[in-house]
Amino acid sequence: MSDAISKKKIKRFDKIENQRRFFDLFSRSYHLTGFLSCGLANRTRKRSLKILNLSEGGIVCDLMCGNGDNIGILKKYFRCEKIIGVDVSGGMIRRAQERFGKKDIVYFTENALASSVPSDSCDAVSCIFGFKTLRPEQRDILISEVYRILKPSGTFVFTELSEPAGFARFFWSLYFVYFLPQIGKLISYPFVGKEYLANSIRDFGAIFSDEPSFRSVFPKVNLFRWYGGIVTGAFGQKCSSDRSGNFS
């Protein structure tokens, strides 16, 4: 193995390990982000899961599930046969288990880029507010992983906070660049302090930059922009196969 490849693997491991430690640290207080969003986060989660068009008795996998906010919505509003939550942070997984239990829910404390979720096993897959934490090459891997675990005709949704353009950018800057960091200082909450969240969103931009990656894997993809571009996302479907084994 060359030194270049070794360094690349070490860097990738360090990135994942840093994410795990970071979210372990804030697992007990991560729910504050929902409160600080003035309801936007919860509305976005509900709206995202609704467009999956979930049928009764389906199996849904929530990748990068965090403390279980999406799991709670799925459990309350949708009649799923089973919910699967995957997150690299053991602290987040434990918090999700405390909040929503284990009945009809399976948890994996694993990297979402290479999970133990069986292939072709899920009717729907969601990833909400986790996509921006990944580098572009990692996002490509995650998109392929979603394809792997979806059943034929299964649906997926990726939804992410984004940096809007035009007039909406003024309100975005006011909230994410000025308001949130000040609140973070007052309550000693570094997750939104020092413009961490704003910088993370800036680096990500919007989900439209990943359109070629989505379309290279999924033939059916729709990109969307909500709330003036403060939220962007991708919704799509895995192709189905006929009896001859051909896909459409």
Mind explaining what this structure looks like?
A seven-stranded mixed sheet has the order 3-2-1-4-5-7-6, with helices on both faces. It has nine helices and seven strands. The radius of gyration is 18 Å and the shape is globular. By secondary structure, it is of the alpha/beta class. Strand 1 (59-63), helix 4 and strand 2 (82-87) form a beta-alpha-beta unit. Mean pLDDT is 86; it is low at 1-13 and 242-248. It has two domains: 16-162 and 206-238, Vaccinia Virus protein VP39 (Rossmann fold), CATH 3.40.50; 166-204. Helix 3 packs across helix 4.
Structure characteristics:
248 residues; alpha/beta; Rossmann fold; 2 domains; seven-stranded mixed sheet; 9 helices; globular; disordered N terminus; disordered C terminus
Q: Could you give a quick summary of the protein structure above?
A:
The chain is 44% helix and 20% strand.
Per-chain topology:
Elements: H1 3-25, H2 32-36, H3 40-50, E1 59-63, H4 69-77, E2 82-87, H5 90-100, E3 105-109, E4 122-128, H6 136-149, E5 150-161, H7 168-186, H8 196-204, H9 211-217, E6 220-226, E7 231-237
Parallel strand pairs: 1-2, 1-4, 2-3, 4-5
Antiparallel strand pairs: 5-7, 6-7
Helix pairs in contact: 3-4
GO biological process, one term: methylation
Keywords: Methyltransferase, Transferase
GO molecular function: methyltransferase activity
